[in-house]
Specification:
Blueprint lengths: L3 E4 L2 E4 L4 E7 L8 E7 L6 E7 L4 E3 L7 E6 L4 E6 L8 E8 L6 E2 L3 E6 L1
Parallel strand pairs: 2-11
Antiparallel strand pairs: 1-3, 3-8, 4-5, 4-9, 5-6, 7-8, 9-10, 9-11
Length: 116
């Protein structure tokens, strides 16, 4: 069983930045995919980005050029650096991991609020 704990959410003005962290309970390098999703109330969870254990990366079109996913295997942590934030980025952000995208394991989520 893998546990994922997100942190780093908060309130920021439009144009600002936040960095989210996803701490895994075990070796993050053993997880094939680690992804970030986001969800607004009454909406489906939306893919944001993934990083594969071979280092390959992909982003949703809505965040390309603004968000950067990275990982620190030594700390079993995946990061999501979010720059040039927009009010439309306001959501609960979830870390996800497993053999697919999305995978089996979800974190509890962290709220990101971008004010205009």
């Amino acid at each position: 069983q893998v546990q994922l704990v997100e942190s780093g959410g908060g309130l920021v003005q439009a144009g600002g930045s936040l960095r989210l962290s996803c701490q895994a309970s075990g070796s993050i390098s053993s997880l094939k995919f680690v992804s970030w999703y986001r969800q607004s109330q009454n909406d489906e969870r939306e893919f944001v980005a993934f990083i594969k254990n071979d280092g390959s990366i992909d982003y949703a079109d809505a965040v390309k050029g603004r968000f950067t996913i990275s990982k620190d295997n030594a700390k079993d942590t995946v990061f999501l650096q979010m720059n040039r934030l927009k009010p439309s980025d306001t959501d609960v952000y979830y870390c996800n991991a497993g053999k697919t995208v999305p995978g089996r394991y979800w974190g509890q989520g962290t709220q990101v609020t971008v004010s205009s």
